[in-house]
Amino acid sequence: MPSQEPLRLSKLMAQRGLCSRREADEYIERGWVKVNGQIIDQPGSKVLPDCQIELMPAARREQGDLVTILLNKPFGFVSGQAEHGYRPAISLISAASHWTGDQSRRSFSNRHTWNLATAGRLDIDSTGLLVLTQDGRIARQIIGEDSVMEKEYLVRVSGRLSTDGLALLNHGLSLDGQVLKPAQVDWQNRDQLRFILTEGKKRQIRRMCELVGLKVTGLKRIRIGQVLLGNLPPGQWRYLNHEESFT
């Protein structure tokens, strides 16, 4: 039987979905992680892949306090850091723009804007569901290297679709020298397509449409995994409820 190569503990914790690697390093340094019943408090520690890992109650409590925010991003806002004079989407997260229909019963606190990471970006000229989270587990579910989570979009187009265009949009196109994963694409009406993707290359839908003779005139994300945009108004946000899950 081949010997097992030790792995960095933080990497293994992230692979198991316990937390992000950054969070794992913090928990280890605080003495909040047990491996095979023993506390490990040295960042960079390596362990065997089949070891038992346990988060201490303090780590679980901290995870319970982490928030995930769902924003209906309007046109003209960038998903990440401010650029070229455009405002970042995170600037919309305030008490004033907290949707009154939020069912989470959470009250807004400024600390809920600390260390928010965007999980699945939207272009500046795209709108709809944008996820901002403090929880590395959720970020990994949505944008991790092995993620196959569905993202659903409504896409308005102009132009004339090539003869085999719809079939190619579903499977057969390549971008950046790589064949795209199969998608689900169908017409909703005469100028709107529905896309369901499990990957997210830069400006993927717009580039896919250009390859088959179409130009995107509007793009809105309406679902990530099992979480829907619903009737959340543009420019407003709500918390992810404890009862909701992307998977």
Notes on the structure:
α1 crosses α2. Strands 6, 7, 8, 9, 12, 13, 14, 15 and 16 form a nine-stranded mixed beta sheet that branches. The chain has helices at 9-15, 21-29, 57-65, 136-143, 165-170, 204-211, and strands spanning 7-8, 33-35, 38-39, 46-47, 53-55, 68-73, 117-118, 127-133, 151-159, 174-175, 178-179, 184-189, 192-197, 214-224, 227-228, 237-239. Helices cover 19% and strands 28% of the residues. The radius of gyration is 21 Å and the shape is globular. The model has no long low-confidence stretch (mean pLDDT 93). The chain contains six helices and 16 strands. It starts with 6 loop residues before the first strand and ends in an 8-residue tail after the last strand. β14 (214-224) and β15 (227-228) form a beta hairpin. The chain folds into three domains: 7-64, RNA-binding S4 domain (Structural Genomics Hypothetical 15.5 Kd Protein In mrcA-pckA Intergenic Region, Chain A, Roll); 66-145 and 230-239, Pseudouridine synthase I, catalytic domain, N-terminal subdomain (Alpha-Beta Plaits, 2-Layer Sandwich), CATH 3.30.70.580; 151-224, Pseudouridine synthase (2-Layer Sandwich), CATH 3.30.2350. It is α+β, with helices and mostly antiparallel strands and 247 residues long.
CATH-assigned homologous superfamily of the largest domain: Pseudouridine synthase I, catalytic domain, N-terminal subdomain
**DSSP summary, beta strand count:** 16
Q: Give the strand content.
A: 25-35%
The CATH class of the largest domain is identified as: Alpha Beta
- Count of the domains: 3
Terminal residue distance: 35 Å
Q: Which consecutive residue ranges, at least 5 long each, have pLDDT under 50?
A: none
The assigned CATH architecture of the largest domain is 2-Layer Sandwich
State Rg.
Answer: 21 Å
